[in-house]
Every structure is written in structure tokens, then in C-alpha cells.
Amino acid sequence: MFACLFQPSSQGSLFEVVARAAAVLPCHGDGAAHDSGVAADPIEALAREFSPRVQGHQPGLVSLDIAGLGRLLGTPADIGGELRRAAADRGLRLHIALAPTRTAAMLLALARAGVTVVPPGGEREALALLPLSVLRQLPPRRPDARRSKSRERQQADTGSAVVDLLRRWGLRTLGDLAGLPVRPLSERLGQDGVMWQRLARGEDLQPLIATEPDVPIEETLDLEWPVEGLEPLSFVLARMCEPLSDRLAVLDLAAVVLHLSFRLVSRETETRELQLPAPMRDPKVLRTLILLHLESHPLPGGVDRVALRVDTAPARVTQFSLLSRARPFPEQMATLLARLSALLGDSRVGAPALVDSHRPGVCAMARFPGGSETGPASADDPTASTREPRVAIRRFRVPVPARVMVKEGRPVRVTTERRGLDGGVVASAVGPWRTSGEWWRVEGWNRDEWDVSLADGGVYRVHRDRSRDRWFIDGIVD
Amino acid sequence: MAKSALARTDLEALLRARKLDRTLHQPGDTAAPERTPRPSDTVLPTGLTLLDQRLDGGLPRGQMSEVVGPRSSGRATLMCAALAAATGRGELTALVDPLDTFDPESAAATGVDLERLLWLRGEGTTMGAWPQREAGKGLERLLERALKALNLVLQAGGFDLIVLDVAEVPPEAIRRLPFTTWFRLQRVIEGSRTVCLLLGPAPMARSAEGVSIHLAPAHGERGRWTPRLFLGLDIHARIVRARDPEEGQCRLSARA
């Protein structure tokens, strides 16, 4: 058994309805409505007082599953009466319909004022006299978040076109449409026509998709006296993270972004945002990550108010594979990376990444571990271990200036000021390999590269910057 | 006598519990202990077939090993080969690089799956200053941070191969580190699946069951050259183990 609540637009815009309901609902100060789990839509909030299975279709139109409610409130007519009384207490005048199917309840709520109750098996008869135009008011068939607006609009347009066509055929009521033979209707209008006929008969095309109220999860703590430094702040954060984590656990959610707001003694507000690598809700991990962030990015002064809000996501379900190698838990990895970032700096921790450029030595940092969950890269390559490996290069991030003596166009001696790079007579040299790029930018390059073996025993890669006519050591072949 | 035998039995049991029983040696027995092939899950193959054969399968897991040699002797090449082999098996690896000399481009060419490599960069050459030129304090701070980072990664677990690359750090700076540093790091990975590999100019430290791989240019020549091309490096690898007078040797080649 389903009930549908509809707020006709004649009572004003949604904002007016919300404002009127907010005036009636008890208010406990800033954010109290959110904390108590009250949804922003007053009709949805009303529905949630009667049933946990509620689906909001559009502003002002809500369906709820009232199966089992009879043991508490009595017959469907009694339930309808209770719903009407509760709505009236909030200053809402709603169309209320109770029917065995959700579609029938919705169509009746859209078309009729007051409370309408349909007994089991009577939905087709109850809908028969409703005008065809009520089909236009039905919400899109799958109103989920992933559905694009354009597709919803397309479906609404199709529905409107079908209703217009049916009216041109001489049909006026849902009963007329429901009574048409299915096969000829399908031949003329396709599956869309059959779908609209099933709706006119009050049949459900999909089950009720219960939605959870969008409750912001946040904690705020006003301190009696300001705290300064990480150690006292860690106790404050522990006091906030634990209840917050408990609430996440109750809702089976996890934090993905932490929004921190610190009110400083100077009356300024310092805000921070921490992106977590994976959904998590362990209070110790959350506190550690916040502390490590504050260690590497200290607050400018004492704090007398701390607010912590989290963006949530469904909790992670850990399903290990027997075939792939076990990885560390994301919480552990996030803590490790945060500790390393605090020690070395944010930009110095991560996975190396190649850059789509011909510039020698350019690289970037990416998030570690990378997103690829594919299996071993070369496990299926039996020749991988027997191939001769490639030599690796040690690269100087900033090329080392060098003095190079050139004879007959080839370097014969390399010296440098840097200790540790002795330089010396060139034993072997091959090159030059000319590369250039990004000539339109200041940082463009134009160089001749050489591989040289020096008397100090090393094999180096050196280059002559052609635009400046200067020599540099790029790296060591090792 | 019975008491000392009991103590010896206890000691041997302790060593077995820590997987160090391969180092047991009978007193007065001058012959090398009989070498038994290691189970495949106790070694980490380097990806270089000849070297792995000499290493009885690869670098021992749960131990600290080292690769030492002069400049251009193939230290980075061996490191990249081991990283490529490990990441190719889907294992997570880490590289502590205090001088920031790692070249992702050549590593990717070697076959390293960069997404499975955690790169911890020091401020070595990015600042435009070659560390040897800096005052000793700067280099000490650089090494101190690198060792702290290494310690954090070792303690976190979950990594199969962790490399500390101090190959271009002056040997005297490494020798100034207290030896307890290495001892502490050895204790962290004991019994785990992690291989800690040190790259240096001279022998630094290795655990009792670890190996030292001494690299040198084969025949004293710096690479293979033709008049027009640098073809690659010829590397002579010598493997040194504790209580194993028989050193393994092999010759490796790497192409440019």
C-alpha cells in the first residue's frame, strides 16, 4: 500500500511553502533542523514521520510506503486522516491519496484534492474518470541523480506529445486509454504507448526507490579559552571526530572530504579542506590526518572555535580478490602519505608521472597509488626477464653548468665548478643529437646532446644550449 | 656442557624463529654451508636472470641488502630493473631519493610501472646545489629526512621493495651516520615480506641474511661505444654474503 502527498502549486512557490513550514516547525537555532534529521522539503519531512521508505519525486510530490502502518494507525482511511491532520498542523494543505500501487496514488493525488483512499483492486476504477492531462504532471519515470536533465526533458516532451495525440484520437480520460487493446496501441505508438496505458491503469513501472535525507554531518566546538599548538588541538579534534564517526557509522556512510573551520583569536576564520584518498570514518585516522595537515600547514594563531563538516559517500565495502595482490588499507596509506608530506613537503611525495612533452627530463607527480587496478603489467610477457635491461639515468633537476673544450666540433674536455663532479678528458663521445621545442615560449629549448665518458670514470649526458651557447651536464648514465 | 648445549639450542631456535638459521655455522667447520634453494616466496627477483641465479632466486625478503659501486657502474640500472620486476608483478614499491636524481622517463623505459612506485624526493639537486658543495649540516639534514622517510615507509608495511638511493652521496657523509641507524631499520623489516635495498658508493650496511652486490665496469671499460653510438654498459656484479666465502659473480649488460 502506498500513499502520495502532493502540494498543489496554487498555494505558492516552493520557497513560500518551505518558509511557512519552517515557521510552524520547532526551531532550535542554527543548524538544529539539520542536526535533528529534518529534510529541507517540509512535505518529505512529514512523510518521513510516517514511514522510513520515502521517495521524493519533485518539489511538492512525495510517495511513501505505508505497508505495516495499519497496525499502528488502523485502516487506510485512518492513515489518510492522520496524514491530513499532521499536514494541517504544519500549515500545509495537501492532496493525499492512498492506493495499492504507487502510480495510482500519485495520479489521484495530482488530480484530486482532499484524501482519497482506493481499496485493493480498485485502482483502475478509481483512475477511470481522471482526465488524460494528469499524465503530463507525472514526474520522469526514473528520477535518480544519474539521469540527465536532457533525458528527463525529452521524456516529458514525449509524454506531452502522446497525450496530445490521444486527445486528437478522441480519448478524454484515463479510463479511455486503459480500455484500448494493447496490440493495436503498440503498433501505432510503440512501447511508449503501452507504457502510458499501463500508467493509466495504475500499474507501477518501477518500485519505490527510497531516498535518504540529505543531512549534513558536522560538529562544532566553542572553547572556553583559546588553544594554541597541535597537542591541545588533538584533544579537541578527538572530541569532535568520535561522535562524528559514530553518526557516519549509523548512516553507513564515510567521509571523503573534511571541511575544517577555525575561528582564530584575531576573529578571523581559517578554513581548510582535506580530500581523503578513500571513504573512511575511523576517528583516529581522521584526527591523525587533520593533525598532520596542520603540522605541515600551521594555523596563524590561537583557536577558540573549531567546526568540522564532512562530505559523505557510501561506506567502502572491502572485498579482497584472491587473484590480485593485497594492498595496504587506504586509511594506512593515507596516514603514511600525510606523514611523509609533513616531513618532505606536499609536492615531493607521490607517484612519478610522465608528461606528454619532448622536453628532456620533464616529469610530474601523481597520486599514489595509481588508480589502475589491473593485474601485473608484464606477467604475461615470458621474455621480459631475459631481455637486456635499459640503462638508467640520474638526472640533475637543474642542469649543472660546465666548461667544455671542443675540438673539431667534438667535446674533448669537460670541467665543472661542482665538487663531486670531477670532470676530465673525454674518453669517448657520441653525438650531437639536436632537439628543440616550444620555441614560441620563453622556456623553450634548443640543444645539442652528447653522451661522453670522462676520465673520472663516469658516463655523462651533456648538452650545449644553442640559444645561449653554454654547456650543461644533464645527468649521469648509471 | 649440557648448559651450553641448551643455550646453543635456544639460540638456534631463536634464529630460526627470525628466519636467520641460514647463517648458522658449525664451529670448526671451514667449509661453506650447503646452499639450499630458497622458496620462491622468500625472495624478490631482480628481473635480471643471471643475477637472480647467483642470488638463489633474488634478494631475500625481510632483509636489508645493498648495491654498491662507483659512478656509472650500473647501480641505477639494477635498481630500475628490480623496480620494474616488482611493479610488473603488481607489488608496491617505494624509492627514497634524497638527492632527487631519479629519472622517471628512463625508469619507464626500463619497464617500471610508475603508478606502483612511491617516489619520495629530497631537495638535493632541485635547488640547483650539488650537495657536496653545501655545508655538512645541509647534507646531514637531507640524509636525516631521508632516513626518517625510509623508516616511516618500512614501518607502514605493504611495500615489497623499498630503495634508499644514496649512491651520489659522499661516502664520508654516510659513514658519519651512527651504525645503530641501520640496525634499527633492519629490525623493522625482520620477518616481513619487504626488501630494503640500499644504493651507495661503498658498503654501508646489510642484515645478516642480506646480500651485498658490488658492481663495477666489466674489464674496466666505461660502457660499449661505437664511433657514433653509446650502446650501453657492461657490468660486473660480485655478490657477497655473510659467512659465505664463495662469492657469486656474473656479468650483466644494459643497453642504452
Protein model, in words:
The complex is a heterodimer of chains A (478) and B (256). Helices cover 32% and strands 29% of the residues of chain A. Chain A is α+β, with helices and mostly antiparallel strands and 478 residues long. Chain A folds into 3 domains: 2-200, Reverse transcriptase/Diguanylate cyclase domain (Alpha-Beta Plaits, 2-Layer Sandwich), CATH 3.30.70; 218-314, Dna Ligase, domain 1; 393-477, no CATH class. A 6-stranded antiparallel beta barrel of chain A has the order 12-13-14-15-16-17. In chain A, strands 2-3-1-4-5 form a 5-stranded mixed beta sheet, sandwiched between helices. In chain A, a hairpin with a 4-residue loop joins strand 15 and strand 16. Chain A is elongated and about 105 Å long. In chain B, strands 3, 4, 5, 6, 7, 8, 9, 10 and 11 form a 9-stranded mixed beta sheet that branches. The N and C termini of chain B lie far apart (62 Å). The model of chain B is unreliable at 126-133 (pLDDT under 50). Chain B is an alpha/beta fold and 256 residues long. Chain B has one domain: Rossmann fold, CATH 3.40.50. Chain B has helices at 2-17, 49-54, 75-88, 104-110, 136-156, 171-175, 179-189, and strands at 43-44, 59-60, 64-68, 93-97, 117-121, 161-165, 195-200, 211-217, 224-225, 230-241, 244-255. Chain B has 7 helices and 11 strands. In chain B, a hairpin with a 2-residue loop joins strand 10 (230-241) and strand 11 (244-255). Chain B is globular and about 70 Å long. At the A-B interface, helix 13, strand 10, strand 11, strand 12 and strand 14 of A face helix 3, helix 4, strand 5, helix 5 and strand 10 of B. Strand 10 (349-354) of chain A pairs antiparallel with strand 5 of chain B, so a sheet runs across the interface.
